[in-house]
Amino acid sequence: VDHFGFDINKTFKQRYLIADKYWKKDGGSILFYTGNEGDIIWFCNNTGFMWDVAEELKAMLVFAEHRYYGESLPFGANSFKDSRHLNFLTSEQALADFAKLIKHLKQTIPGAENQPVIAVGGSYGGMLAAWFRMKYPHLVVGALAASAPIWQFEDLVPCGIFMEIVTRDFKKSGPNCSESIRRSWNVINRLATTSSGLQWLSEALHLCSPLTDFQDFRMLKDWISETWVNLAMVDYPYECNFLQPLPAWPIKVVCQYFKDPKVSDQLLVQNLFQALNVYYNYSGQVKCLNISETATSSLGSLGWSYQACTEIIMPFCTNGVDDMFEPRSWDLEELSDDCFKEWGVRPRPFWITTLYGGKNISSHRNIIFSNGELDPWSGGGVTKNITDTLVAINIPDGAHHLDLRASNALDPKTVLLARSLEVRYMKQWISDFYTRQG
Amino acid sequence: VDHFGFDINKTFKQRYLIADKYWKKDGGSILFYTGNEGDIIWFCNNTGFMWDVAEELKAMLVFAEHRYYGESLPFGANSFKDSRHLNFLTSEQALADFAKLIKHLKQTIPGAENQPVIAVGGSYGGMLAAWFRMKYPHLVVGALAASAPIWQFEDLVPCGIFMEIVTRDFKKSGPNCSESIRRSWNVINRLATTSSGLQWLSEALHLCSPLTDFQDFRMLKDWISETWVNLAMVDYPYECNFLQPLPAWPIKVVCQYFKDPKVSDQLLVQNLFQALNVYYNYSGQVKCLNISETATSSLGSLGWSYQACTEIIMPFCTNGVDDMFEPRSWDLEELSDDCFKEWGVRPRPFWITTLYGGKNISSHRNIIFSNGELDPWSGGGVTKNITDTLVAINIPDGAHHLDLRASNALDPKTVLLARSLEVRYMKQWISDFYTRQG
């Protein structure tokens, strides 16, 4: 449970998945998925890329679950009980878990010992893959860090960039789309001034629980914002189910309801409902919208909320001009107080860059940073080559780690290109490893 | 206090020393001593090399004290109270302290921000310097790791090598020297079989407290062994006071008492006393020998005993053939039980190599590993170049990090050469840094 202290000598069961169908003991490799904030089976099922390249790389696939997510709970049902039980939920502990797991696999699987391991991850898992290569270069020959916003910390990138990219996605997915959304906030605000307005809003949006007070109203707006953010993340070129079941290019579908800039307030809200319905009810089975949920329950929202209160402090802001949201500045103090109330801990916003180097990472080698240009997380990502071996691969038509998804007939050419480049680098790392071994 | 967990938000005062006499804001550098297991003032006073090169490198000197040593006690007088208070004494926490201190200095000392930092350390501090460069390459451009036995773990080197080197030092410092010492153990053992023998032994060795039982007797032998080890470490070419005040080439002085292979048992013990007296009473002021002390009290023996029970698990063994000691195998279980009794913790002997890479460190850059060939710790050190930028400097006539000591008229040529090479590498790192800055 605690790699970095000796007082607690407790252990826990970490879940991992292995596939060795295409693995070759002779000249093979190991692709190691550095699990992120959720159930590892779900990530495994959404990382088809690893399955698609397994044969070519003669690779064993390993998917390691991140502690405090899925079934890898250090204290079982008590894991989220209080700050004492949560104390071992950090990226450093997770990386140390991965290190020990790799050593364990190499010691116990005959033929694995002298094979190169490549870390693969997306999003927070992509950050972990990159950080793992930085901190444990003796265990992995390289890392594919897909959609990893390793620079979304401190002031390494402007805090507004994330929402600007979300806005850009809506802007280009339909005429008047981002403008209509920008306008919607004022409409909602006006309706919320009266209780009859709130009631009408609740009904027009088919909410499961009617809005009753100011706090509900704040929550509604956050929920709507997060919906647009999530849509930007999963604006994939084909029908699929990642955060939610969705049509191909879902933002285009959403934007069909935001074409007319001159509709009445009420019609705008009714259109807003239709738009939200694309995200929350593509199946047509949903009876009402629940503003306390925005994505799949395979993501561990409790654990992530704690991590976002401790290490993973990412400044976000909006100004309503360069983006389609209500202006909101980054308020560390407010976050800190909220975190203390919720978890009894306070953020350490400068720690991640102290530990992992911030922008000063050029002494490392063999990391691919891939980013989809539709993905708001690309704003905090590495989108330019740093050195010959710390390379950026940008995917103009890609959303959040599209490259890690299984190959699809509707994939844009740019992601095919990205994947083939990624494979080329990985093969290079593998052959360099075997050359060094002699 | 805890860089790796958020439940405890306590801080502590870390002591550090700064000298900026030769520091230049224009084109200068920062030499950062990664403090080891003792009082930082003592290390500062025994690291004349940094003072000697400060002007040439336009360097600010910083000496950072290691947590749990000197005055840098996280819980004041309670720091060593129990395993709960000791839980934050690890190399990882110490490196994180150094990282935060460097960031603090760069933020608060005008002119320091855009200067290259070089980590310098000896012995355990040398391991820390090397590990710091490995784990925080964004904070230091390189490291001088003097007499750093980073491979004295697991089975990376033979467990007997350390005592073999000690023995070699004695063997070549006088005829019959190591043979006499090898013989001495049996003589002592024979005497210890009777209580009158024990009493005679206590008197002949001028012990402050007479030996009364088997445990005392074990302690006596460990104390004598450790004395020979310490002498091998500080077999310097000139009179000085590091672990104890000593003459030049102290082993030669000691070996004058072990010339005759055929003396009686009693004379051998009397000679043994004279030899021990060289180490413990060079000043001539000491009235009796205390077998519970072997070195300066500036070293923090409590803290080190804990570290040697947790992370710093170095296998040692002797066979009495290749070395001059009684045969003793490496017994991890015994150590583990002793550690649990003393500190309530158990060793994790595989952790250091998992964390820092063991022999597989070739992906790192800009570390100098210097070793004196007289130094028993060189057995676990890096004594061959690993790559162009991970280089070994061997000093045939050097004992434990002689190169870090102040220049002395009696220095052998080999250490002068080593120091000039070290300066050349450091200058290269500094100029590379400024070249990259453009």
Automatic annotation (TrEMBL), chains A, B:
Documented EC number(s): 3.4.16.2
Location of the protein in the cell: Lysosome
GO terms of molecular function: dipeptidyl-peptidase activity; metallocarboxypeptidase activity; serine-type carboxypeptidase activity
GO terms of biological process kind: angiogenesis involved in wound healing; angiotensin maturation; energy homeostasis; glucose homeostasis; negative regulation of systemic arterial blood pressure; plasma kallikrein-kinin cascade; regulation of blood vessel endothelial cell migration; regulation of reactive oxygen species metabolic process
GO cellular component: basal part of cell; extracellular region; lysosome
Alphabetical keyword list: Carboxypeptidase, Disulfide bond, Glycoprotein, Hydrolase, Lysosome, Protease, Signal, Zymogen
InterPro entries to which the protein is assigned, alphabetical: AB_hydrolase_fold, Peptidase_S28, Ser_carbopepase_S28_SKS
Catalytic activity: Cleavage of a -Pro-|-Xaa bond to release a C-terminal amino acid
Source superkingdom: Eukaryota
Database matches in SUPFAM superfamilies: alpha/beta-Hydrolases
Main EC class the enzyme belongs to: hydrolase
Classification via Pfam families: Peptidase_S28
Family (UniProt): Belongs to the peptidase S28 family.
Role noted for this protein: Cleaves C-terminal amino acids linked to proline in peptides such as angiotensin II, III and des-Arg9-bradykinin. This cleavage occurs at acidic pH, but enzymatic activity is retained with some substrates at neutral pH.
Subunit structure: Homodimer.
Protein name in UniProt: Lysosomal Pro-X carboxypeptidase
Native organism: Loxodonta africana (African elephant)
Gene designation: PRCP
